[in-house]
Specification:
five-stranded antiparallel beta sheet; 164 residues; alpha+beta; disordered N terminus
């Protein structure tokens, strides 16, 4: 009788093939209890990760907004251009920089108070040492500014309040 007992002991070990839970990939949700009442282990889940701090990225492209010019030109440089080669201002008129220069890309916008005259808006472009006059006057929203100027300069020259 020891042979039949040994066969009964080996019967569970010689079952018919691979158990069903090993034949199918594990499901992501918990499964219902098996017929024996033993719950199937839940599928492994990824460990939670700590979100990293977002890196600072510019939200606007260069030129969308005009702002202070950290690398120049200065207001005095704009006045010198207007008094010199541009021939817009006589040397004896008193000029005070009211606004700017404000920069967007390589363009600048400046508003000047000119004693005895209306304020003067000035649009220039280029590097501080090689500044070129685009336009100057009480209305500087000309063709070149509208067609080629960066949005930040166009906003100031065409939509902005003079001297603001």
């Amino acid at each position: 009788m020891t042979v039949p007992v040994a066969l009964l002991a080996l019967l569970p070990l010689t079952a018919c093939g691979t158990p069903p839970e090993l034949r199918r990939p594990a499901q992501q949700t918990a499964t219902a209890p098996t017929a024996t009442g033993t719950p199937s282990p839940p599928a492994p889940t990824a460990a939670p990760t700590t979100p990293t701090a977002p890196t600072a990225t510019p939200t606007t492209a260069a030129g969308l907004v005009a702002g202070p010019c950290p690398a120049g030109p200065s207001g005095d440089r704009v006045v010198s251009l207007l008094r010199g080669s541009a021939g817009v201002l006589p040397r004896d008129v008193r000029v005070t920089v009211r606004t700017g220069p404000l920069c967007a890309e390589d363009w600048q916008y400046t508003v000047l108070d000119v004693t005895g005259h209306e304020e003067l808006q000035v649009v220039t472009r280029g590097r501080p040492g090689a500044l070129k006059l685009v336009t100057a006057g009480t209305d500087v929203c000309g063709v070149e500014v509208r067609a080629a100027g960066p949005p930040g300069i166009r906003t100031l020259a065409c939509d902005g309040t003079p001297g603001a």
